[in-house]
């Protein structure tokens, strides 16, 4: 048995590209951690990139040799996120940072949520774009201007690139959950949660037959109007635009903040300290710091993510809603046409 592994306060599960990004951040933060990988190839790549040992053989092998950590970061492939998290919970890990989208369907997210709640585990979903320097700067300006009046966002995906990616069909078929959820979460994180939501879909792709174009609008709980649009078969890019009484805040790309002042047509780039976002994957360092707090401030819990998936992602995707008893209270406040 590895006593060093047993004493480790944090396990990083996974050795792929996302785990490498976490490894760089954890080293920068001087946070002791152990890396649990599965295959020899990814383990070798991780060791070369981060200069940290990797325990191969997967989480089951390590749990057979040592006690589970209290804290873990799960950065495995999309298809393995839910099961890996369940394995950690069953082994006694009480606090987990789980890569988005936690699972590929609402039903799977609901199952994981109930599983974690029954065992008292704290699970947080790693929406790192909430922690970009550009997001923090926008949040401060929104507060200065007295809140959000309205907002618009776009989550167009480059279908000609995505269809060539080596993802399983299940991932591609649920691409809005797997990838577009990044920008959708950011938009409602800054703009406010919807009270009313009207959704429309059209088209379809060979790898995403349910829809390829999306539009909608609604009103937030604070009374701000919003709209969204995405066409995966046309040119476009991710973006969020927030309108306050004094400014239009433009996050396009999401890592930059551009501002249009009231009474002007000029748009200028806001100077921000984004050194951590250029040294590491954008938002990741601040995200991990938030997770390591006794009580995270901005990371959504798994329960909140479940509500987000049920009341926002599912309707936007055109998949309807699957309500649990806990969601009944929101039924009268959120509608989809």
TrEMBL record:
Molecular function, one GO term: nucleotide binding
PANTHER family documented for this protein: BILIVERDIN REDUCTASE A
Domain Gfo/Idh/MocA-like oxidoreductase N-terminal: 12-123
Highest taxon of the lineage: Bacteria
UniProt name for this protein: Oxidoreductase family, NAD-binding Rossmann fold
